[in-house]
Specification:
By secondary structure, the chain is α/β, with parallel strands linked by helices. It contains 13 helices and twelve strands. The chain has two domains: about 180 residues, Rossmann fold; about 170 residues, Rossmann fold, CATH 3.40.50.
Length: about 350
């Protein structure tokens, strides 16, 4: 089946790495692996930094709908429309009108809903995101947190769709350094920078007890210089290629990330695919991608003392660390592209798409 993939938050080919870009790429890869033809009819991002940006985005989206409709009338419409991400700051403005115009099944992966946004400055964005929920035949809830809010609004449409990962690039054999911690993050203002500052505090505590422990942080962004000053020289590795990141993971003992206010965190899935146990913050969707006590340890977000204690607990218990490594590998394998393909096919079927 030919499927039109819409990505109002960030398209798969966006130059800035992020979890949104990663998931968009994985959705496309999983569908293609199942024999579907995936088209990207638009590169329009509806994400708005402020609610004042929304009118211009709406106007641009209206023109984009007409452009796509013209192309589909000439070359044939896809069999289904699938949107990745929809919320008040990035409502899907293309999927609903196109689905209505061409009478095509329409589904959304990872819609989220925050009822507190129904009033106030984001009320218009919230209403548009809700209109997409109402137009869709199926809503793929990625986390338990998202699922609860969506069920309250449209229970019959909600389909669990756990996140998945391409494990192949991370299946490597290398000698692990039992003292090596790794992390990967974009160094942006806000919650990312906040998480890195918590990590810096926790790492100082770890080094006070274990001076031999090292940390490598992969990633880049506008906050790099300010954040690098909080760590020993040489901690920051910069933005790595996917291959280099996989190699880094293969040689480490433990993945660490405080994950303050993370939706769920793709880095956790990739780390576990590499057999890395995790120490992370128990935030929102993180509990859906890390099995606390089995594939890693989760602690209160923003608590550097608890974070450092969890890291030292695992580093000082090699047998437990090895067991968690095996569990992490198995968990990632159960959430690979094959699993993702089955979940996406189930979502599309719920929306009324032909098998």
């Amino acid at each position: 089946m030919r499927i039109a993939l819409l990505t109002p938050m960030k398209p798969p080919d966006h130059p800035v790495p992020s979890g949104d870009r990663t998931f968009a790429r994985l959705i496309r890869a999983a569908l293609v692996s199942g024999g579907h033809e995936v088209t990207l009819p638009s590169a329009l991002r509806t994400w708005c930094r402020t609610p004042h940006d929304l009118p211009a985005v709406e106007a641009e989206a209206a023109l984009e709908v007409e452009r796509i409709a013209t192309a589909w009338r000439a070359g044939g419409a896809p069999g289904a429309i699938l949107t990745y991400h929809n919320y008040h700051k990035a409502p899907d403005l293309l999927g609903p009108p196109l689905a209505r115009r061409f009478a095509r099944p329409y589904a959304i992966v990872e819609p989220s809903r925050a009822p507190r946004r129904a009033t106030g400055e984001w009320a218009r964005g919230f209403a548009l995101a809700d209109a997409a929920l109402d137009a869709a035949g199926a809503l793929g809830a990625v986390t338990a947190n998202d699922r609860a809010a969506l069920v309250d609004h449209a229970s019959g449409k909600v389909v669990p769709l756990a996140p998945f990962v391409d494990v192949a690039p991370f299946c490597r054999t290398a000698a692990r350094d039992p003292r090596a911690l790794v992390c990967a993050a974009m160094l942006r203002p806000g919650r990312k920078a906040h998480s890195v500052r918590v990590l810096a505090d926790a790492f100082r505590r770890v080094r006070a007890a274990r001076p031999d422990v090292t940390l490598t942080l992969a990633g880049d962004g506008p906050e790099r210089d300010a954040l690098a000053a909080l760590f020993p020289a040489g901690t920051f590795a910069g933005l790595l290629t996917h291959d280099a990141l996989a190699e880094l993971y293969a040689r480490a003992a433990l993945f660490v990330w405080p994950a303050i206010d993370e939706p769920f965190g793709f880095t956790f899935l990739e780390a576990q695919a590499a057999g890395l146990p995790v120490v992370g913050g128990r935030a929102r969707g993180v509990i859906d991608v890390v099995r606390d006590g089995e594939t890693g340890l989760l602690v209160p977000p923003g608590d550097p003392a608890a974070f450092a204690h969890a890291v030292l607990t695992l580093l000082d218990d090699p047998e437990r660390l090895a067991a968690m490594s095996a569990n992490a590998t198995a968990f990632a394998a159960a959430n690979d592209l094959i699993a993702g393909r089955a979940r996406l096919d189930a979502l599309l079927a719920h929306a009324g798409a032909p098998a």
